[in-house]
Amino acid sequence: MDLATLISEAARLLFDPDSGLWERVALSLLVSATAGAHGALSGLPLGYTLGTGRSRATRGMHGLVNTGMSLPPVVAGLFVFMLLSRSGPLGDLGLLYSRPAMVLAQFVIATPLVAGVTAAAVASVPLDLRLQARSLGANRLQEAWLTVREARRGVAAAIIAGFGAVISEVGAVMLVGGNIEGSTRVMTTAIVLETRQGRFGTAVALGLILVGIAMLVNGMLTVVQHSGVRYER
Description:
By secondary structure, this protein is mainly α. The protein is about 75% helix and about 0% strand. Helix 2 (about 20-50) runs antiparallel to helix 8 (about 150-165) and helix 8 (about 150-165) runs antiparallel to helix 11.
């Protein structure tokens, strides 16, 4: 099958309500958005603590977070698989090969990334600003809010980057989700399966959707990174 035929077939499937493509897209977005949201809720406070802390313990934790940022997704999936397997500490919950398992695996991937980028953004805020806030009577929560506001572009970039990382990964969700049709099959795992089975039109259609989502996420990241520049000149 030539490239033109593949693209034509992919375009046909994109507009075919019975193709099953959009169910996989919806599941991918649901799993990744849930994992990204939980990663943000955990990663933002951790990143703030790392970005403002000066103790040895904070530096040690920062090193672990930086290591987590470069952790291969398939290793994160392996860790969650061992945790949820029958012989694992959480095996009695019966979560392996389920959507919660996929969310957990992507959460493990997203959290260090959100925390690391947030820490870098917060650390770039001048210490004098925080000291001035304290001298004016701000409590710790008010000081934290002011700091995060100053680092808002970096914080927003952290959240977007966390979601972008998990929506496009395949190894972890395949390990812990099992790639079960109608239950745990997302875009990335479906692309692998369709390619192996020679259904390249479906694989290309899913790939186009995934690329479109990636472009949208990266476009949002670019807008966030450049927002406010005109006011700084």
